[in-house]
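2024-03-11 09:14:02 INFO receiving multi-entity request
2024-03-11 09:14:02 INFO entity count = two
2024-03-11 09:14:03 INFO echoing inputs for audit
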Amino acid sequence: MHFKARAGQKLADVILQDNLKKAKSKFVDRRATAILDLDDFEATRDSATALRDRVLNDLDLWLEKFEQQAAKSGASVLWARDGAEICWLVIDIAHRHGVKKAIKSKSMLSEEAGLNQALETAGIQPVETDLGEYILQISDNEPPSHIIAPVFHKSKEEVSALFARTHHLPAKDDIQALTREAREVLRPHFLSAEMGISGGNFLIAETGSVALVTNEGNGRMVTTLPKVHVVITGIEKVIPTLEDLATLMRLLPRSATGQSISNYFSLLTGAKQAAESDGPEHLYFILVDNGRADLVGGEFAEMLRCIRCGACMNHCPVYQAVGGHAYGWVYPGPMGAVLTPLFTGMQNALDLPQAATLCNQCGVVCPVKIPLPQLLLKLRAKQVEAHLRPFGERLGLRAWAWLALHPALYALATRIGVRYLLWLARDGKRNDRIRVLGVAPEWTLGRDFPAPEGKTFRELYAARKETA
Amino acid sequence: MSSRADILGRIRAGLGRDDANAVAGRSALDAYLAAKPQGPKPKVDGDLLARFREKSEQLSSTVDAVATPQEVPQAVARYLSAQQLPAQAVCWPELASLPWQQAGIAVEARAANSSDLLGITGCYCALAETGTLVLCSSPNTPSAASLLPETHIAIVPAGRIVSGMEEAWQLIRRETGELPRAVNFISGPSRTGDIEQTIVLGAHGPYRVHIVIVNTEK
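2024-03-11 09:21:47 INFO inference complete, emitting structure
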């Protein structure tokens, strides 16, 4: 199913529409307040953009540096070309350490790879521990609808019914009680799992560390309690120094949830020391390509700056209207509309670059200044170049191009067009609205089309020249 | 071809990498790592202690202050009775010598487990910019004590409050050289906003964070 069909369903979903309305202003308002306490938000954005570009322009060298430092700290660095290789590597590590259960902190790459299903097939129980991701897992492995608020689309009533069904406990009706119930259900899993799987917000080349940002504390549990910790992260997540981390951490929580700082933020380096009572004995990094390497140095390289804050979707009028599931893959909103065709193939996400008004709200709020509307436009151009647009659209554009090269015919056609629109607008008494547009009936489904004044610009121009 | 060689190879192709520009690139990289330039920072001037206190409270932590380390157990006892919490705790081994017993608190210096209701820790330093505690892991300062219990009490010497994250990194580099396994930045109680974007305190970590500042006079 394509975006257009899915979007239609989502617009008609009354519960979803209500949930979206409740949630949308919270992220937007909180961010607007939170950026005020940076004295120079714009300069911070510029600095973050420059440091992301610095790494991307020499990504091979920064990855080598990271790998070298991580190895020095006692971690193992592995590489994965795609989702299948991620699954294979994780399962291999699990078997090597006798792992039966893996607790997971949120990782979008694990979604890209479909890791949970692969682990289950291999006889390893995956347990999602981020509250939102846990809700999705017990909801039949539903995909997330937002990269930082995975159950953005669900109401507390839906969560309550799901918990009562899954936990066999009396249904709770307030969010506080639901949160406590999840805490109590998940705690034993934290204590019994042999492996923790996390994403990584940033990899620090200077020290070979991973930086992990969470609010719930599940990220700390996953990386403190089990004997094995596996970090799965994209190759583009490397940053140079701890100072650069400080700059990015001023932007990430503010752009994401409107917090000045996330509750928990851990910098993890190497495995546990002999005398330590907690921490993993083994630390693995899986550095993933899955479509990223081919973007380096190319015309879409700016997209690799992305720090996955979600501000673009929070501020997108299209996302706010249809929610994340309409986008069909792991990443929704404007960043998803760019990443999905680049990672999964243009022909597999044909209408995503069109699923935007190009209003540039996303570009304005992006903390690393990714020109999202321009990238969407480039993707649209690529579709045309690759002859991927539908036949009717191609025919229409060719007809228009031909007409535009023949001025006399063009003038005639527009004159007929205007007369036709006026004829459509006839409505007994008033002549200013068109209720059903014959050539594009979908456009007038939700609104009227304004009727033209009566003459084309060329006619008016000619008349004025005569009187002058 | 290994995945590593394949991935790095395609990155190099995209960047037009050759032997000459690799040498130049590596020396630019090393120069950047040596210089460690800082980005723009918000002004954190004046009284670091007052700012730390204000920001911590904004993050839903509670804050108390005492004059000497010896007075900490009494302050903890006051907090526990006000909150009607049991006077029983696990603490970092390095805090075991404080007069807990005199304050009527049963404190064990060991690794925290899931049945501990109260964890008492110190901190490596604290950030005035955001009201954040910085804890470094080590055998004497285990991570779980600030994570598993429902209440976390942190002792913060006033002299260890620095302005921002950059200053914390400088302090760690100067004092310990190598990074500890885990540097945990803690900013208030654990929370989630996953259900209807409504903030709830106490997701997987502590419900309460209480900070006792020690204003040791010179």
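2024-03-11 09:21:48 INFO post-check: Chain A has three domains: 38-294, 300-385, 396-467.
2024-03-11 09:21:48 INFO post-check: Chain A has a mean pLDDT of 93.
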